[in-house]
Amino acid sequence: MKILSAQQIKAADAYTIANEPISSIDLMERAASACAQWISAHFSSSETVHIFCGKGNNGGDGLAIARLLWEQDYKVQVYIVEVSLHATDDFTANLEKLPIQPQYIHASHEVPSITTGIVVDAILGTGLNRPVEGWLAGVFHHINNLQQQIPILSIDVPSGMMIDSSSEKSTCIHARYTLSFEVYKLGFLLPENAERVGEIVLLPIGLHPEFLQRESTPYHIVDAAMVRALYQPRKSFAHKGTYGHALLIAGSYGKIGAAVLSAKACLRSGVGLLTTYLPSCGYNIMQTSVPEAMCITDPRNELSMQFYTLVQEKQQYNTIGIGPGLGTDVSTAKGLEKLLLQYKQAMVIDADALNIISQYPRLLDQIPANSILTPHPKEFERLFGATSNQFERLSLLREKAVQYKLYILLKGKFSAIACPDGVVYFNSTGNPGMATGGSGDVLTGILTGLLAQGYQSKVAVLLGAYIHGAAGDAAAEQLSQEAMVAGDIIDFLGEIFKKLPN
Ligand SMILES: NC(=O)C1=CN([C@@H]2O[C@H](COP(=O)(O)OP(=O)(O)OC[C@H]3O[C@@H](n4cnc5c(N)ncnc54)[C@H](OP(=O)(O)O)[C@@H]3O)[C@@H](O)[C@H]2O)[C@H](O)CC1
Ligand SMILES: [K+]
Questions:
Q1: Whether residue 120 has its Cβ less than 6 Å from ligand 1
Q2: N or C: which end of the chain has fewer CB within 10 A?
Q3: Which residues form the YjeF N-terminal domain (predicted)?
Q4: CATH architecture assigned to 6-216
Q5: Which of 16, 83, 203 to mutate to test the pocket of ligand 1 (most atoms within 8 A of CB)?
């Protein structure tokens, strides 16, 4: 699914009006009725609905929602926040049709104290063109300070939030739900806005499919439909050689668990054969807990230069996953450098392997093209430097993926996957229960398994990120976000793979 900018959404609006064709006021009515329907499906008509409207089209939506809910016997209060002198035509048309008397607000102290019901925020939408400050910021603070039990529903966008740039300097409404039209907005997907958007509900409003199809954007969402199209069912005449041989280089004294989790996830993702390369202290643990994996050990407790020799001698590995629990010992760093000089196929690089690379940045140039890097935000910062906000970090992510011809998966609620062509995909699965030790090791295992069995890097990283999050969602559903651990993600992989065929 495409993510459009504010400008593109405006163009989609205009294209729909001209080519469906539909009048602008009827398109607003369609948007408002989608919201009113959602509200009536989720809140009883005994609730008073307090609707705050600006004077643009977002406010117009609010007025139309007010009328539609009033017609369904909701008690409705409308407050018009005088954000500007100018009102749009569709706002004015809906004001004329409003069956109740609105109250006007020109100062923050005029916000009523609301103790029951629900609040609808239709003050500002995608037309925001500067940070919210002054008395309007005061109005937003008043609304945000309403008692916790009063849900705030933002229409299209939480008022005050920029959708294409950072809103750190803007005062924003903090919504419990954002009822947004047709497409995800980029700002929703970045952590700086997590507290502002709340739960995102996408409501289709019939924007013209032709426009949505032909418009190009560097930002996309990985959804179930995309993943089903990427998935390749196994061939009926397959043998274990058909699905590749992966090498997983992982573990150090005290962190063999990371290697075990990664190895299990790799095997549960369909790899034909797996060899793990571990420090000798991990041998018994790996052979006992993952009997399906072959095991080669390094005599030291840290993985040393010897692992490069091993790869050099045995070129049969279809891919290599390196990093989980590895440690950053100097001998390991030397081994990694030698490995990068020798091995030229796409590989998966995670955790301490990334930390080593950030200590020796020259190694970035040695990483085979189309490899997959999976940093969390701190690792990303160590690798590529700090940025002043998350939109800038996103630009840097794209820039580095293009520069080094890599797939870089920046972990987060919506993990951002930047590709060598500069396109970014946001994963839509996963939950906070996955913020637990070992989740990343599981992801490395899945990605290594998919790459080894012949998926192209792009497919492997999109499919892998989605499956990882979906298995985490299934685990949380059954066990709770609190009680689930990383190993549970592996246990639910099968359930997700079963759902993939079209
Ligand atoms: N295609 C769709 O998805 C549809 C969207 N609809 C709704 O329309 C809004 C966008 O409406 P628009 O009129 O373009 O913009 P807003 O309502 O968000 O803003 C209106 C004016 O507010 C002023 N403004 C901007 N920033 C600030 C600020 N920081 N402080 C105060 N005022 C501000 C600005 O006017 P100025 O003259 O003051 O510059 C804006 O013009 C979209 O979000 C949907 O809700 C349609 O209803 C259906 C189709
Ligand atoms: K809004």
A1: no
A2: C
A3: 9-213
A4: 3-Layer(aba) Sandwich (3.40)
A5: 83
